Amino acid sequence: MWLLNTLIRCCCKRKTFLLELSKSVNPVMLLALRGKEAAMEALCGMLEMDIIESNDLKMQMITTLQTTAIGKKMYTALCERQIALRELQQKGGPKKLTLPPQSTDADLVKMLSAGSFGNLECLSLAFTQVTSACAPELIKLPSLRSLNLWSTQ
User: Fold this and answer.
1) What is the pLDDT of residues 12-48, one digit of tens each?
2) How far apart, in Å, are the Cα atoms of 83 and each of 48, 80, 88?
3) 4 φ, ψ to 5°?
4) SS3 132
5) Which InterPro entries does the record associate with it (predicted)?
6) Which of 35, 71, 75, 93 fits a disulfide with 116 by CB distance 3.0 to 4.6 angstroms?
7) Nearest to 18 by CA among 3, 36, 38
8) Average model confidence (pLDDT) across the chain
9) Domain ranges in the chain?
10) Looking at residue 36, what DSSP letter applies?
C-alpha cells in the first residue's frame, strides 16, 4: 500500500499516468472510499484533466469523493479552480504571460489560438525560439503594452 500511495502522490498530476490509472478507476475509488488521500488526489486529477469520458463514471467518482471530509474538501477546491479559470477566460484572459524557454513560433500560435488573451498587457518571449514570423499573431493582442524579446531568434 505504501508503494501505491507514493506512486500516486508522485505522478497524480501527470496525464499519461492518470490515463493508465483510469483503467483501474474502480479500485482507486474503493481506496478513496476507505479514506486514502492519494487515491482522492488521483480521482480529482482525473476529473480535472477530463480523462474519464463516461458521465455516469464521473458522477460515481464525485460521489465517492464527497463521502469523506477530505475528499469533499479536495473536490470543492477543484470546483473553485475550474470556476476561477472559466471566469478568467470570460474576462479576456491573464494580464501577464511568460512563454517557457525553447518555445517556438508554433507553440506561441497554438497558445494564442487556444484561449482568450484580450487583456494581455505583458508578454515575455525571452529565451524562446520565436521569430518575426509570429508578428501577425502578436498584432492581434489589443492590450499588449510590454513585449520582452530578449535572446529570441
Assistant:
1) 678 888 999 899 999 999 999 999 999 999 999 999 9
2) 12, 5, 9
3) -65, -45
4) helix
5) CMIP
6) 93
7) 38
8) 89
9) 2-90, 96-148
10) -
- What is the residue-wise DSSP string for 38-98? HHHHHHHHHHHTT----HHHHHHHHHHHTTSHHHHHHHHHHHHHHHHHHHHHHTT--SEEE
User: And the C-alpha cell for 123?
Assistant: 508578454
Q: Which residue has the cell 464521473?
A: 58
Can you state the percent helix, strand and coil of the chain, rounding each to 5? Answer: 60, 5, 35
Cell of 146: 510590454
CA distances 63 to 29, 30, 135, Å, are: 10, 12, 48
Residue in 152, 153, 99, 146 with CA at minimum distance from that of residue 127: 152
Amino acid identity for residue 76 in this structure: T
Under 8 Å between Cβ of 60 and 29: yes
**What pLDDT digit, counting tens, does each position of 75-97 carry?**
999 999 998 878 776 777 788 99
Lookup: cell for 95:
494580464
**Cell digits of residue 112:** 494564442
Residue 139: CB partners within 8 Å, gap ≥ 6?
none
